[in-house]
Amino acid sequence: MFQYFPTNYVWSLSTMIALTHGGNIGEVDAMCAPLLEAARAGDDPGTQAFYEAWKGGADNLIALADDDLARGHTLSAGEKLGRAGLYYGIAERMQAHGFEARLAIYKRSLELFEQGRKLARENCVRVEIPYAGTHLAALYVRAEGLAPGQRAPIVVVMNGLDSTKEMLQKSVMGTMFARRGLSALFVDQPGTGEALRLAGLPAVHNTEVWAAPIVDWLQQHHEVDPQRIGALGVSLGGYYCPRAVAFEPRFACGAVWGANHDWREVQQARLKREGENPVPHYWKHVQWVFGAKDMDDFLAKAQHMHLNGVLDRIRVPFLVTHGENDRQIPLKYAHQTYEQLVNSPKKDLFIFTAREGGVEHSSLDNPLNAGNQIADWLAEQLGGSVA
User: Fold this and answer.
1) DSSP for residue 118
2) Closest among 216, 225, 147, 155 to 183, alpha carbons compared
3) Residues 6+ apart with CB under 8 A from 293
């Protein structure tokens, strides 16, 4: 993986997320160059400096977009506002829970993404799915070439620990499904994005409780084929997705972009400082995500986060993928998930190597080839097009 900050994996990971999710390399370099010295102090110190630099870059884009709008150049303005929303999201992602400006910058990032989508006329609309007396927010991307009244297969994309629907929609997944005749639904499930920050919904281990209402909603959608609903989990979604498919038989297939077979075991390894963390202030972050009152409470909740004894329930095609150099989640977990899919009629295991790229966690080093391979597999299972 390209490490902008040679001694700091966590800061470099956020930088790569920006570069592979719609960011501009010149803008990212301008924001990051003043941070090189601060990054050497470690993951947690200096994150406010990171915030100021990335917010400054986003604010400059907003000013440029205002100039575009004054000239009537709405497409140009929309692209700039979309990138500004991304940079605000990256700045927010790096902060500790309780950082005073965190909620405000998150809300501002949502506004910018929405403005950007509308002005740039993107194939993407925000939707709300009823859940637990409130709703789950999601982004719906329509399959290309749909005729009036035609129904398309769809892929439900599940976040990881710290991703959001906006980030994933700005990745290669924002277009690669639609081009293959598949619609996509990017969901902020409990513990992520709007569900956590605005609705106060923490993560839960029994993911079927929120997956079932999503399927209910999709089966009533006039553009969705109710028999061809697939699921894809990214990062910690490598736990959420298999669990959802195991207990929600209406999913026609499933796939993971990064296996996460035994996340409770990963936490024990991280306590011993084994492997890399995904975000700064890691232990406070996971307590927030899971609604834990303290570290002991979090570790008790994490004890449920494994797939042993679950995967034999899956009776639909399933794909397991993993980068061979994943520094967050060891490769062994991909083999464990694959081996336990004993009743899947078609199970596949793709290990991304240096030959095709995508060797790091969820292929954040190079998502293009890996993403296309995953999209092709899902299109083949759901009746999309790979030609």
Assistant:
1) H
2) 155
3) 287
Show which of 57, 87, 118 is a domain's final residue: 118
> How confident is residue 55, by pLDDT bands cut at 50, 70 and 90?
very high
Contacts 24+ apart (CB under 8 A), 62-67: 62/112
Q: What is the pTM of this model?
A: 0.97
Q: Among residues 4, 12, 3, 20, which one has the least CA distance to residue 367?
A: 20
Query: Is residue 154 domain-shared with residue 101, that is, in the same domain?
Result: no
From start to end of the chain, where are the E strands?
A: 125-131, 134-141, 152-158, 183-187, 224-234, 253-257, 318-323, 347-352
* Same domain (yes/no): 196, 293: yes
Contact 165, 188 (CB under 8 A): yes
3-state secondary structure at position 90: helix
Residue closest to 192 by CA, chosen among 288, 125, 304: 288
Tokens 């026609």: give the residue: 252
Per-residue model confidence as pLDDT tens digits over 346-358 = 999 999 999 999 9
